[in-house]
Amino acid sequence: MEAALQCFVDRGFHGTAIPEIAARAKIASGTIYHYFASKEALVNALYRKWKSEVARRVLAAFPQTAPPREQFRVLWNEMLAYAKAHPAAFAFVEYHNHSSYLDAESLAIDRNLKDFGVAMVVRAQQEGLLKPVSPVLLMELVFGAFNGMMRAHWERRIEMTPEVISAAEQACWDTVSTH
Amino acid sequence: MEAALQCFVDRGFHGTAIPEIAARAKIASGTIYHYFASKEALVNALYRKWKSEVARRVLAAFPQTAPPREQFRVLWNEMLAYAKAHPAAFAFVEYHNHSSYLDAESLAIDRNLKDFGVAMVVRAQQEGLLKPVSPVLLMELVFGAFNGMMRAHWERRIEMTPEVISAAEQACWDTVSTH
Amino acid sequence: MEAALQCFVDRGFHGTAIPEIAARAKIASGTIYHYFASKEALVNALYRKWKSEVARRVLAAFPQTAPPREQFRVLWNEMLAYAKAHPAAFAFVEYHNHSSYLDAESLAIDRNLKDFGVAMVVRAQQEGLLKPVSPVLLMELVFGAFNGMMRAHWERRIEMTPEVISAAEQACWDTVSTH
Amino acid sequence: MEAALQCFVDRGFHGTAIPEIAARAKIASGTIYHYFASKEALVNALYRKWKSEVARRVLAAFPQTAPPREQFRVLWNEMLAYAKAHPAAFAFVEYHNHSSYLDAESLAIDRNLKDFGVAMVVRAQQEGLLKPVSPVLLMELVFGAFNGMMRAHWERRIEMTPEVISAAEQACWDTVSTH
DNA sequence: AATGAATGAGGCTTCATTCAT
DNA sequence: GATGAATGAAGCCTCATTCAT
């Protein structure tokens, strides 16, 4: 799965040949089919593994009783820790358009995570801390900004110093907060 | 090219077959090779066409002498107008990872546009209007947020009413501005 | 299709590789897929072509108003002429068990031909010329005997001289007729 | 071997995978290779087992001193008993074209059985009871008719009641006997 | 003896590209 | 210019066979 991840990140699902993955993993192509019924099953397994991992981390770290500003900081840092610990997984999950081969179960994981984010936004809006607009919009603006930042980092266009990280986190809070 | 665009959006470069494009365009596969030397030449031509179109629009609309807040609004609205006028082109250019098949010339267009954005950020920073951090970071946060919003719209998770548009624009300004 | 026929006769459907057929036909494997959607489509097309050809011949030659003994002789000779004119086609259609890959349409042709044979037997039974037992049994005994004879001929265990042919025809009539 | 027989009947030699046979037998694929050197060795062992079984039965039941009409009846009934007791074995041996993978020893069993049949026909011809034509032809007509009948039964197109059986036996005798 | 993971050659099929018309 | 049949390399996947356990 590690080899498959690297290949999919580099060349995408359709651009990656099963023998390429096998070569990278130093196994025979046929062996892959002992563990995954098809190339699609493999990509779905990969996607689920890493999306679930984010979800698990987010849920584990989330401070239920902390104020929204603190919740935001924790989640933001958790996402960042994840993206830095598993850059290829992050790139795979976020920088590719998977719509043509992911199955319903894989998409469901994504949806659940988004629902969690929206619920968090709604609670903070009820406290008057966030802008009173579509909660989906606010969540997508922040996720989008985060992804943009990480992609720029991945492409070596910005370096993630503590100052940059802290400024980015504050900037994203400013995106959604009332003033 | 219209047919190719649709196919590439739906299934990506490697997932799209030349005969598929030909079928969608109701021409013969061979005909495509009168106009493009190869599949790669076609995807590069497409990418250049639509990235140049953004660049052209941005440069044409950019109010050199207006204050930064106004410049920001104009560019943001111009990008939005573009994304709504050519949603498939926008999705193609922004939601796919093209790194494995774009050539140097195509990448240069992208880089020029980003340089323009960075220069604009730097000028506004000099006026003390924007946060004094990495200008690349600020630009990527805004572009990322914009992309996140448009993708959510494309996936029908938010509707772009005038209120949403206006709130999103203000939120993105808040991302980068000092307070 | 001629090449495919030879290959299928020699090694059966599953024992024949598409590249083998292509090599025998002196074309590229891919070319086969311009004319047939799959290997199964090819074998079905072949089966239909040759089963229809028998059906066509039988219907064309059948003497509606002649007495049953004469009808029998005509059909028997027509089948023989067919089997000698197209020995590979006959072997393909009769000596292989096609049940795992023929589709409904192909099977229908076979069924229609058998129904025709049964109807003929029933009419002759009503005249008291044939044994008063299951008409399907009588038809299968004659078809089976015919196939046995042709297979022995195909395997060069008997030679089909005019005397042999005539004796075989009479023997098959004796199989079904009352005495 | 029972599992292999079922698989070979259903999909033929080339259409059957060793893992399929193993799955049906509820053993591991590797285990098959403790008992048979290869897939070909397995199919040859199966063919020999069941062809020998027919031969054994025929020789055991054959009434050396009875008149030909009685000998015929005994053999016909013995074949029928065999075909009904082991329908899959019968279908495997008779409805598939084995020429591409049977070895010399397997083919020899078949030839010996046929020689026995021919010798019996010749003796009856010398008594003037059978038609004075190629004995191979007569034997093949009867075997062919028998196979046709059994295949129709296998495909549930005729039911083998005592009346049908008796009529079929008499019809086959009529095929070969003088009148 | 039995297992079943691993192998890699080979099978079916697709598809970028060519070229005669 | 346009066509689409033809090509054959390459992709996904299967499967006969091996071998360490």
What is the topological layout?
4 copies of one chain form a homotetramer.
Chain A: H1 2-11, H2 18-25, H3 29-35, H4 39-61, H5 68-85, H6 87-94, H7 104-126, H8 135-154, H9 162-176
Helix pairs in contact in A: 1-2, 1-6, 2-3, 4-5, 4-7, 5-6, 7-8, 8-9
Chain B binds a DNA duplex (21 and 21 nucleotides) through residues 17-20, 22, 27-31, 33-34, 38-39.
Give a written overview of the molecule:
The structure is a homotetramer of 179-residue chains. The first copy, chain A, has 179 residues and is mainly alpha-helical. The first copy, chain A, contains 9 helices and no strands. In chain A, helix 1 (2-11) packs across helix 2 and helix 8 packs antiparallel against helix 9. The longest helix of chain A has 23 residues, at 39-61. Chain A is elongated, with a radius of gyration of 18 Å. In chain A, 34% of the residues are buried. Chains in contact: A-B, C-D. The structure holds a DNA duplex (21 and 21 nucleotides).
